[in-house]
Amino acid sequence: MAPKPNPARPDTDPVHGQTVEKKPANPNPTPSSSSGPSARERLASLASHLLPGGNTEFDYVIVGGGTAGAVLANRLTEDRNVSVAVIEGGPTDVGNDMVLDLKRWLEMLGSDLDYDYPTVPQPRGNSFIRHSRARVLGGCSSHNTLISFRPFNEDLDDWANNYACPSWSASTVQPYGDRLKMNIVPVAPQQRNQVARDWVLASSRATGAPVLEDLNAHIVHRGGFQKAVGFFDIAYDPYSGQRSSASVTYLHPIMPHGPYKRHNLHLFLETWVNQLEYSPEDSSKITGVKVTTKHGLSKTLTARREVILCAGAIDTPRLLLHSGIGSRKDLEALGLPCKHDIPGVGENLTDHPESIVMWETRDTPPETVMSSDAGLFLRVLPSDAEPNPHPGPDLMFHIYQVPFADNTERVGYERPKHAICMTPNICRSQARGKVSLASANPKDKPLLDFKYFEDKDNYDERILIEGVKWARKIAEQSPFKEHLIKEVAPGPAIQSDKDIGEYARKVAHTVYHPAGTCRMGTPSQQHGGNGKDASVVVDEKDLRIAGLKGVRVCDASVLPTLPTINPMLTILMVAERAAELIRDDAWENGLRRTNYH
Predict the structure, then answer these.
(1) Which of 143, 252, 352, 513 is catalytic?
(2) 398 is an active site residue
(3) CATH code reported for the domain at 46-96+136-187+242-346+514-597
């Protein structure tokens, strides 16, 4: 189903805040002169905290004010007669320069704006990986590097053809990318330092990959590529270096301090959802959520229509499990009652793992947008290679112009003062893990077991071995090699495939893309469908949890597989489509009213 005409298109109607036009590079960029909102505006933006005596009943309750939640909040509140509550565990990003200034993204890792989830021991991988999850309005779009790619057509068609998601083909989903509000542009020319420029040229020479000026435009017009190199497309303002996050573009204009504030949007910041609330008359119907504020106040928020879970691939399954929705065996082992036996909750955990190849350099490269401004895509195994036959790239590189050395230092390598790192990552990892509960206490962090490099045939490890080899070939090319002093890690002594693979696994890291833990598909007969896969959690037709009423999921957890590239735009597009599905359902049930702002 292609996007339908909107009676009051929010991307053109100034009442809803105009879409930010793509901004050309400013020849004389200067930092933003804005000092942020006034104290009064800050108080207004925080006034939606849950307070005694406040409204606790809404049409829609969105759990999570992150990447997907921001989109849904904006689109659903376009109808002024629909009330929407957004519950966000973190604070606002309004006026917070550490969040809004893209180049400061590294400062947020491990900060009080990071849930900082550890992984369980990984027998074949790095057991010290910390999975950063943003605790701030805008979610990971307020925390990540905002590298922005549309999904490849083959990724979406793979969902439709091989994962029982026929309504999520490329022809259906790609048009929703045209609705996105973010300002997505290639890294501005004046922010492309010479080291990165030389790396792009060296990568092209070493691999034969064409240099593309606009990688994302190539995907939009041609559906993808097999190999390419170039500067990334970033969702940012090239004048100021500020984020064009989901929060900035979808929420800020309609929040209390914004120019188009909507009184039917209710934000509950620094508020935690503990459990879903069931109807006393119908145990298969979700009617709201139980929440606790940072001040310890507990309340139940009621959804007259639906609860929409947008808490992400870790916290959405976590919430479901604490609400008695998941594997009966696992829940009862923790002393939790199982209200709905859906064994796929928390399963199918996937990621984009990466490794590190590091060189010492002569000095610190000039400042860039966010220290990782360019990338390379390659196909290193035959396109019919099992277990991942497909025509697209299977290896991606970031180049980091900082010492990305925590993991290498842990296994005995030096930390150079100045360094460049190439980080080969696995575009279509075959490893699948699980999110589970550590205990029955909702305050305890969940257990994250990605099962890194435990896939059959060692596919993931083979990709990284090839990645290290290609990184070394790139480093031999002039003029890029003139920037390098020596290879620090893995070092010239590591040459055999066995040794390279062991090194690559030991120092492996994450690109922070967990997904798949409430995957969509065709539900099994047990849950009211005719599908054959009992691991399906969400019905692909409408994103409702299989066998339940009054609750949907819309975040990275529903993805059957990760797209080949960074998934942020994919998640935004899923959310844009979800908003349309929800509004269409309301219309069919006689609930939708076309009284737009």
Answers:
(1) 513
(2) no
(3) 3.50.50.60
